[in-house]
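Um, can you check?
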Amino acid sequence: METNTEILFTFLDGHATRLSEKEELLYLEGLYETAKAWAEGKIEPETGEATKEEIRKALQLAVLKGMRASAQPHHQMTPDSIGLLAGYFTDRLSKGRPYVTLFDPAAGTGNLLFTVMNFMDGRTAASAVEIDDLLIRIAAVTADLLAQPVSLYHQDALRPLMVDPVDFIISDLPVGYYPDDVNAADYKLKADEGHSYAHHLFIEQSMRHLKKGGHGLFIVPANLFDSQFATQLHTFLKDEAEILAVLALPSGLFKTQAHAKSILILKKPDLEQGPKPEVLLANAPDMKNAKALESFFAKVDAWAEENGYRTN
C-alpha cells in the first residue's frame, strides 16, 4: 500500500512532467506551477488528509528529481537527517518557549527551514532570503501548502537586509568565494586580497541579525577551522559570538570527505555576563542507528541541562 508521501509525489511528478514537456519548461518550473495550482485549489491529489511532513517530503522528492535534472551546482538540498537534528537543537535551545522567530539567509527551496518549522509546529514564524528566483518561488508555494508563516525576500543576502533581529538563524551556508569584492569590503571577514569566503560573510551577516542571546545554527564545511581564513574567523568569533557546539555529521551523508560538513552552533552574547558554556564537541551518529542516537541525545540533553538550557 502506498504511503501518503508516495501518492503525493506521484501526483506532483506526473503533473510537473506533463506540464514541463508540454510547455517546454524545466522540470522545477513545471513543479512550481503544479504546486501553485494545488495551493490555489485548481488540482487536488487523490489522497486523504496529509500531514505537513508528508507534504514537505513529497515536495522534497520532486525537487531532488528536478535538481538532478538541472545539474546546477547551487541547486542542492539539505538531507532530512540534518534538518531533523537542526529541529531538535532549535527546540532544545529555545528552552520550551511557546514562540520563537527564525531566519534563513540562504533558504533555497526552504526545505531545511520547513523541516525545523514542522518539528516545532505552531511555535515559530520565519523570514528567509534566496537569490535564485525559481527556488524562492518554490519556497513560497511550499509555505502556502504547509500553512507555515514565512516572509520571503528575493535578493543577495549579503547586501543590506530588511529583516528584524530573530531568535534563531538556521542555514546550510553556501560554500565558496563571494564574487562582489566591493560589497564584501563592508565585512570584518573580508579577504585582504582577492575574493572572500561566502560562508564566512554569511556567518557575519547572520550575527548582525540575531537578537542578543539569540542562536545561530549553521551547516558548514567540516574543515571550517582549518581553512585559509580560519585565523580571521577565530578572531571574529572570539569578539562577536560564543561557540556552543561543533557537531561532525556522518560521512555517509556526503559523496566524499572533501564535501563533509558539520553543524556549528553559535550564541550572540547578551547583557548578562555569566560563565561561558562548555563547548559541545560530538560526532552526530547515523540516524538509522537507534542505540547510537539514544546515546547522542542523552549527551546533548546532559550538556543542555548543565549549561542552562532547561525546558521548564
Summary: Residues 244 and 279 are 5 Å apart (CA to CA). The beta strands are 100-104, 124-130, 150-154, 166-172, 177-178, 196-197, 210-221, 242-248, 261-267, 280-283.
